[in-house]
Design a protein that fits this description.
single chain; 420 residues; alpha+beta; Cytochrome Bc1 Complex, Chain A, domain 1; 2 domains
């Protein structure tokens, strides 16, 4: 892969900008990250950030919702958005000649939304329907239920809140959230592809100059604060539901993305639960046939990290499955091999190299760099740290980060036995 040369600037308007020119591309992509998310909602208005993200595109002072959609479509632009615990993201990919126009449409949407009453009401009703549909998706429901225990009552909120909180949301609260949390100094913009750095910088500075919050206390410079502290509460929690499969989630503290041990954590997780050659898949599913599904993954608010294992199994086998999952974590420190670590390295690095061939994926990676590290981090730098991980590094990480404090959640017809 060619050497990257990323430009990182704080623009006069307050926006933090990172640009990655990619020669030979016929597309450009960008992500606009607003440093406000689910954890910025008032406690009694769970789901508000989701409603803001859903309705901010439903009309501006210049265009109706349909006119805004038609304007993006006329450019052939692919747009999307999403909301997270501490931020929400607006994405776009288009041809280079339409970049200025696409940025202008997004600036118009973020700066001058009108949040029509009827769209706010529809968004609330759709969110309630999505919330109720979780009852038919036990895997997603289990993740919602473990959130407050894994992250605390604030960072652990679900994007859909609860039915009572959603029904409290009115247009004025949507507008108030936007007024207090949308400002140029809370924007991180990542841009990549066939792009001229200086021209793009000037365009973004022009579009967002004067975009100030009504509350200066929300205007902290991106990257200057580490994010809200996550609160971890060990313990076992069972939610009864008549299901044919029992769902088990196990969570314990990990490290932050910016921590020196993070590359080691990624390799350890790769050995444990990534792919069909991972220990969980081969030992728990293939050899013992205990589970329908099994996996391991990490999640990261800005201030830290959480490690998860999950499985779905027959209710009669849930205790054996739980013990087997923990056994696989415990023995990883004892007998992890160089071959397993090398296989995990190849898998993870290959994915980063493949993503680098897709402009929008590379921009998404750049956006994550700004969010977690406060600076662009090259693929070469990340891969070098992954490549340097040794067997002893993994064993040391596992010794220093034992799974001695667990949050366990089961969803199904019976609780685990002997778990406290």
């Amino acid at each position: 892969m060619a050497t990257e040369s990323t430009e990182h600037r704080r623009l006069a308007c307050g926006v933090e900008l990172a640009v990655l020119p990619l020669e030979g591309r016929r597309t450009v992509a960008y992500e606009i990250r607003v440093l406000a998310g689910i954890s910025d909602e008032p406690e009694e208005l769970g789901g508000l950030a989701r409603i803001v993200e859903e309705t901010i595109s439903k009309g501006t002072q210049q265009r109706s919702a349909q006119e805004l959609t038609d304007a993006f479509d006329a450019l052939g632009a692919q747009v999307s958005s999403g909301v997270g615990r501490e931020s929400m993201v607006f994405r776009c990919s288009c041809l280079p000649e339409y970049l200025d126009h696409a940025l202008g449409l997004h600036a118009e949407m973020l700066r001058t939304p009108i949040f029509p009453e009827e769209y706010c009401e529809v968004a609330v009703e759709l969110a309630i329907q999505d919330l109720l549909s979780l009852e038919d998706e036990p895997g997603e429901l289990a993740r919602k239920l473990i959130g407050p225990h894994a992250y605390g009552p604030r960072l652990g909120r679900h994007e859909l809140g609860c039915e009572e909180s959603l029904r409290r949301i009115r247009r004025e609260q949507v507008v108030d959230y936007w007024k207090h949390h949308f400002t140029a100094r809370r924007l991180q913009i990542s841009l990549g592809g066939a792009v001229d750095i200086d021209k793009a910088s000037a365009r973004i500075d022009q579009l967002f100059t004067g975009f100030d919050s009504t509350d200066d206390s929300t205007g902290n410079a991106p990257g200057t604060t580490p994010g809200r502290a996550a609160e971890f509460t060990p313990g076992a929690h069972h939610h009864h539901k008549e299901l044919e499969q029992q769902h088990i989630l196990i969570c314990w503290p990990g490290v932050a993305v910016r921590d020196d041990a993070y590359p080691v954590e990624r390799i350890a997780l790769g050995v444990l639960g990534e792919g069909m050659s991972s220990r969980l898949f081969t030992e728990v599913r293939e050899k013992q046939g205990l589970v329908y599904w099994v996996g391991a993954w990490d999640e990261h608010p800005r201030s830290g990290g959480r490690l998860f294992m999950g499985a779905s199994t027959m209710p009669a086998r849930c205790d054996q499955t739980y013990r087997t999952l923990l056994r696989e974590v415990d023995r990883l420190e004892e007998d992890v091999t160089a071959e397993e670590i090398e296989r995990a390295k190849i898998s993870i690095i290959a994915k980063t190299q493949t993503h680098g061939d897709i402009t929008r994926a590379r921009v998404s990676e750049l956006s994550s760099d700004l969010y977690f590290h406060g600076r662009p981090v090259s693929i070469a730098e990340k891969n070098a740290k992954l490549s340097a991980v040794t067997v002893e590094d993994v064993r040391k990480y596992l010794r220093n980060h034992p799974r001695d404090r667990l949050c366990v959640l089961t969803l199904g017809p019976r609780p685990l036995e002997g778990v406290v």
